[in-house]
Amino acid sequence: MALNLQTHLSQITAPSLQFYNRTGSRGQPVQDIGGVQHSSIPDLIANIDICFIAVSDDTAVRSIIDTIVTVDPEQLRQKLIVDTTTVHPDTSAWAQGRLEEYGASYLASPVLGATPVAQEGKLLFAVAGPDDAVQRVEPYIVGVMGRKVMRLGRDVTRATLLKCTGNFLIGGMMELVAEAQVLAEKSGLGCDVLEGLLEEQYGPLLTSMSKRMTGGHYMPERGQRPWADVNLAIKDVSLGVSCAEAAGTDLPVARVVLEHLRAARGYSEETGRALDSSSMYGVLRERAGLAFESERVKQRDSKEGSDAN
Q: What residues form the catalytic site here (predicted)?
């Protein structure tokens, strides 16, 4: 997202993207194309008008907002904080109230799409908050970091509630595809045949999920980061369960997904391998008497080892 935004700013000869990252070295790619890195959040906020937050969870968001409001109140007025993190709706409401006390505006703007979609600048932004704030930030989203902005009104909790619901849907569909792929392998039908059916009958979303598994992306190469970390997937699906409980309903499928994701996390901790949110595929493989690692993963890792030698 940051790379795409900085590229866009360069193309329109606008001031460079200014940013802060807790792990400074991860900002190097943005610096390499003209981004300006700051050493602290207060220093960053003092020098910008619009701030996008993209972190891992509610705790991080709350910590950042609490740090932002330590800035001189006169400098905070008219600032716009856009939170793209997947958080509980209650956190969005808290962040809006906290910032408005200091004259700053807030948008809840969680994004939908895995790493490859983000790289292509085709994320879907679910945005809620003041209309003027949405209009102010939209030119930096559509055609830059995302393909579309879904406007959900002024109530910021609607954006994060939609994202939590969307993550439940993704987790449930991922589970279905994983189960079907294990069935295809165990029955002799063949993973390629099933993938052909998904492509012809069910569309690109389920097909891409299938390829995430059959292509070995559910278990990235050693040292590589997953498209969506299994720990974040557990957090995201758990948020959906929490939202359902608050609404007086239940998500039984989400509980199945969580059980398999937690089992995958256990495998990750035992082996020291980072796993993707699609790694329930490995768990289901094991429970069907197959290896957690598919032949595709084994061949890739074997080649990686040979190249290293």
A: 163
